[in-house]
Amino acid sequence: MQAIFDFFKNLSGIFLTMKFPWDYLDIILVAIIVYYCIKFASDTRTGHLIRGLLFILALYQVAIFLKLSALTYILSNTIQLSFIAVIIVFQPELRSGLERLGRVKIGNIRNLQSMSRSEYNTVTGSMIDNICESCRLLSERKIGALIVFESNVKLGDIINTGVVVDAAISPQSVITIFYSGTPLHDGAVVIRDNKIAAAGCLLPLSKNLDISKELGTRHRAAVGVTETSDAIAVVVSEETGKISYALDGKITIGITEKELGELLRGRFLVSETKKRFRFFKKRGEQA
Asked: In the chain, how many domains are there?
């Protein structure tokens, strides 16, 4: 009982000696960093690695307590090397995290420099309607397709892997690209500035082990490009005809044409009621 009393007494003493506001700000910032680190670990396979490291640390303490010199030596060196191993093994996740920190969500104004808000919405809405119609036709005919919508993070390196098209979007053009008899049907189409920027593009495959083994290369590529960018990737399955989309490294299987249209409008249309142009809504907001 006395130990508990001493603990709270020492804890209150720490708070009494803290300088306002800098010490409190320091604690808040550390708490935020810890929170996002835990959230990041829970959303990726990093969590499994952390559990493994905690097990090694616990085993190391047991080895010290039991005075097992050989095991203590091995575990000590393992722990030192594990920090380098984390950087190597989880390089894609670390890169993705740094890229997310570097994104500026201030609204991309290049499309609005030469047109009004309503004009932009008209052009973008027409593009979305054409994409939805294309996906519906592709789904009915069970023609596989992969369409990537560029957002704030530029996809120039991916566009350079394909064939530059720079053409307006229509159901006929999209179906022609993904028809099995054409040389570009196996790659991805990248949408930039409401146009088909390139076709036959190569995307990085996701290394997420939690993705269902039933999903093919197109779905894994869709997840891969959204792990390192803020793009939206739409997939039409060649086997089932289902329409799916990937966003923020996660994939949603089996959506309707209407749901796809609502998703794209919610992400790319500019709000008519806000003074500030908004290309990217937070999750849960209504279009």
From this structure: 2
| Residue reference for tokens 């090397």 | 81
Whether 230 contacts 249, CB under 8 Å: no
Question: How far apart, in whole angstroms, are the C-alpha atoms of residue 126 and residue 171?
Answer: 11
Residue 217 located in a structural domain: yes
Decide: 230 and 152 in contact? Cβ < 8 Å.
yes
Is-contact 257 135, C-beta < 8 A?
yes
Average pLDDT on 259-273 reads 86
Split at pLDDT 50, 70, 90, the class of 4 is low
Structural domain for 30, as ranges: 2-102
User: Chain centroid to CA 86: how far?
Assistant: 20
On whether the CB atoms of residues 90 and 105 are closer than 8 A, the answer is no
Q: Where are the alpha helices (DSSP H) in 44-163?
A: 46-65, 69-89, 91-102, 117-141, 156-159
Residues 203 and 88 grouped into a single domain: no
Measure the N-to-C terminal CA separation of the chain; round to a whole number of Å.
57
CB atoms within 10 A of CB 249: 19
Model confidence band, residue 44 (pLDDT cutoffs 50, 70, 90): low
Distance CA 238, CA 141 (A): 9
Residue 264 is assigned to a structural domain of this protein:
yes
pTM of the model: 0.62
Best-predicted range by mean pLDDT (34-43, 76-85, 263-272): 263-272
Out of 102, 121, 150, a domain closes at: 102
> Residue 199: which CATH number?
3.40.1700.10
